[in-house]
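Q: Please design a sequence for this.
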């Protein structure tokens, strides 16, 4: 059968989504780190500012170039595993996981009084007294073991993805030990003193002082470093940090100008890494894992959309290079969902209008992040257009069909089909026939009929298994980790 074309012009060319050229790996990763700031509930640029502080400390410590290079990437990517515990945090607290993560960084959680006050403030903020008490009891039952498991899950996931990027083992180890404390009261292993890798000690201090600097000012940043020296932080690393106190141009650079350009100046030139096409593929796969780990209901969604989109493109006669670009767009299309609360993503009922307004922001977040990646060119516009409609009633830009490129039309079809055939908190996954029937009703208004025809052709030729089984396994894993809290069985649905 002849390939179906999304255009009536048989001579149509395929403009690349990713422009050819050479780009530093650090430029790609620093741009994508903005998505990690979203899920941590931190102001935009948190990871980059932490990296600048950490590299300034490394300068004072006169670290060798290989160590500074490994530290550089660890600082940018320290939060790679941050999405993996979002669902559990939201369930335990009955609140927005991003707010919990943002506020917990401003307390000393090793002090029982501070931890108890934090739990009282953050737990079930919109619920009744009984709900708050029940959740506080659940948190108490989790105890230190539960805290350690949350940190371990995050640290293991982050270190694993870093290794997939081909970065030094020292970078992975620094991320894995990010939350260890000099006193031995940190997580996940309870390492003490110089048992903790030096790069991890720098990461811990750097991210903490950045949070206090942005929330309360420079004096607060130096105060928390001194107060926690010998407890949270290595005293030698704190002394190196204190040497920066009067470097006003440095501290001003964290607030003014182009953070990405400033960060590039701190990359060790002798060990500068280039992001070749294979590396960009690995990075796209890795960040898709970050997105998909945020909720059991989104588990493996990005990879599913990417697979379906490439299949449709194959039926439409896209050449290999264009299919490769489209796969990257599919993997990264939902980066902005890291900025949506799990209290919304995991809600057992349909979202309210206010909640749906929050969901509708995620393509805009995706575009803002992806357009900062050098060489991505059209990829940012295409990836963020997956909720646009042919009739112009989609979001976030309300683009009409005559300006939507074939790649965006393909992503829209792939996204809808993948979502319909997967489970949601409020419904089961739909069988193929039901999903296609629903999509056909939207052909010409919402979805491109040609792309929809290509999807059906590809499905006829391909064995594709909906991700429902993988979702249920992820839900079971989460339920098993919570089972001791209220005696919930793995078969019960997660409800925030």
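A: Design:
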């Amino acid at each position: 059968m002849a390939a179906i074309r999304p255009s009536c012009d048989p001579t149509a060319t395929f403009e690349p989504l990713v422009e050819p050229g050479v780009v530093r790996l650090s430029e790609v990763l620093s741009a994508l780190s903005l998505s990690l700031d979203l899920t941590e509930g931190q102001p935009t640029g948190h990871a980059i500012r932490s990296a600048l502080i950490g590299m300034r400390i490394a300068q004072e410590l006169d670290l060798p170039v290989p160590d500074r290079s490994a530290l550089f990437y660890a600082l940018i990517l320290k939060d790679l595993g941050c999405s993996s515990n979002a669902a559990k945090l939201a369930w335990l607290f009955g609140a927005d996981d991003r707010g919990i993560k943002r506020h917990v960084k401003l307390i000393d959680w090793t002090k029982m009084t501070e931890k108890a006050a934090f739990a009282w403030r953050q737990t079930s903020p919109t619920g009744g007294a009984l709900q708050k008490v029940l959740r506080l009891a659940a948190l108490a039952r989790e105890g230190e073991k539960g805290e350690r498991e949350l940190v371990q899950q995050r640290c293991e996931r982050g270190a694993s993805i870093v290794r997939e990027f081909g970065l030094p083992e020292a970078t992975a180890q620094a991320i894995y030990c990010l939350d260890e404390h000099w006193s031995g009261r940190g997580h996940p292993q309870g390492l003490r003193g110089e048992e903790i890798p030096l790069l991890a000690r720098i990461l811990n201090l750097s991210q903490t002082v950045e949070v206090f600097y942005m929330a309360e000012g420079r004096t607060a940043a130096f105060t928390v470093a001194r107060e926690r020296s010998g407890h949270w932080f290595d005293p030698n690393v704190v002394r190196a940090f204190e040497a920066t106190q009067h470097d006003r141009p440095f501290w001003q650079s964290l607030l003014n100008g182009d953070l990405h350009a400033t960060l590039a100046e701190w990359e060790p030139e002798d060990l500068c890494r280039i992001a070749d096409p294979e590396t960009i593929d690995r990075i796209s796969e890795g960040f898709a894992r970050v997105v998909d780990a945020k909720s059991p209901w989104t588990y493996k969604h990005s990879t599913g959309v990417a697979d379906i989109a490439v299949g449709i493109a194959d039926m439409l006669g896209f050449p290999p290079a264009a299919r490769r670009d489209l796969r990257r767009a599919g993997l990264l299309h939902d980066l902005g969902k890291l900025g949506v609360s799990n209290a919304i993503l995991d809600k057992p009922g349909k979202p309210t209008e206010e909640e749906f307004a929050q969901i509708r922001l995620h393509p805009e977040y995706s575009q803002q992040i992806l357009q900062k990646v050098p060489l991505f060119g059209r990829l940012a516009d295409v990836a963020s257009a997956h909720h646009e409609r042919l009739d112009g009633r989609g979001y976030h830009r309300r683009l009409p069909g005559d300006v939507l490129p074939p790649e965006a039309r393909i992503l829209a079809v792939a996204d809808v089909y993948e979502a319909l055939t997967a489970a949601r908190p409020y419904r089961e996954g739909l069988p193929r026939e039901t999903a296609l029937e629903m999509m056909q009703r939207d052909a010409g208004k919402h979805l491109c009929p040609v792309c929809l025809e290509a999807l059906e052709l590809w499905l006829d030729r391909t064995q594709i298994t909906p991700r429902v089984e993988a979702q249920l396994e992820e839900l079971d894993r989460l339920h098993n980790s919570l089972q001791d809290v209220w005696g919930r069985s793995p078969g019960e649905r997660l409800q925030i």
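Q: Thanks. Anything notable?
A: DSSP finds 24 helices and no strands in the chain. Residues 25-271 form a domain with the Hypothetical protein af1432 fold (CATH 1.10.3210.10).
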